[in-house]
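Predict structure. Chain length: 363.
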Amino acid sequence: MNRREQHEGTSRWLAMSSPRIFEVSALVLLLLVAAVDAIAPPEFSAVLLYIVPLGMVAWLGSPRSRWLTTLLVVVIWTMLFWFERSEHSWWLFFWIVIEKAVVFGGTAYLLGRLKQVLVEQRRLNRLLSDRVRIVEQLAAGVAHEVRNPLSTMLSGVEYLARRERADSERLLLQDMRSAVTRAELIVRDLSDFSAPLRLNFAAIPISTAIEQAAREAQSRANTAKVSIETNALPSVAARIDLTRTVQVLVNLLHNAIDVSVAGGSVRITAYVTHGSELNPKAIGPTSKLVAIDIDDDGPGIPEERMAQVFEPFYTTKAPGSGTGLGLAVSRRIVDDHGGLLRFTNRPGKGLRATLLLPMGDST
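Prediction complete.
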């Protein structure tokens, strides 16, 4: 027998014997508790002590041993109670048995169910993690394989568009370019969603990120005849990756522009707040944060759908107008910054997107 077979045999023996070891240990502990209960003063209650060996068996033993241990605990408790009393009553004996059976049996059942729930949850978490990993690998592979052909197609469409064409041909080339561009956007979102993020943090003036994002979104705003209003920005810095933060802001601005009516406006406001807005474990309740609000005058999001906006491939846009990955990617970027991204419906009309980021050194 080689070393590997010996190791596997030892592992199987431990797997089979571990419950029995705990059951024997719990039985010894139960006898010790009974001995303590027998010599203790009458006013001493050992109920909680009996829970310890019972809990060991319920959590680490088999279901059969759980109920045998419960029966043994009830018998021991009832016998000690019976012998300690000078006056005996069968009705009292009956009710003591029922009471302890409910107490100890219920405890064993609840602990056993809790163990089953936790084991099932752990199994489902592993299953979900494996499926997410497979989806991410598939998305990364598709994005890698499709990106190069799309670039070639886009170059060919742009080359053909340089020549004089009839109106019908020119419109066809515009449609082809729009379709290829959209396919490239989907591939980029898939790549961002599946690939691990590499962030380069630095203390960047928050006005720099906002102004750059506003410039990148201006073309879309002009097409929709929507204005972008930037309120007075504080002279503070945030600890961010500039490229990724601009990506998040541009995505939020595009969403706000898409739901705004012609002649409307999208407003950007930045200010300083405190870490109590976030999970204290992430930054700390007393840490300062940079907050960015993006307000639109659109219809908002129904409260029952608010929790779905960050789910991958979920979108409220018309078919062909969105990938459903923008907010999922944005939230991932913000989480990696130790920040928070949330949406709230404004009183009256419109939606507010709030981005919270850790504050850097003052500038």
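Summary: Confidence is low (pLDDT under 50) at residues 13-17, 279-286.
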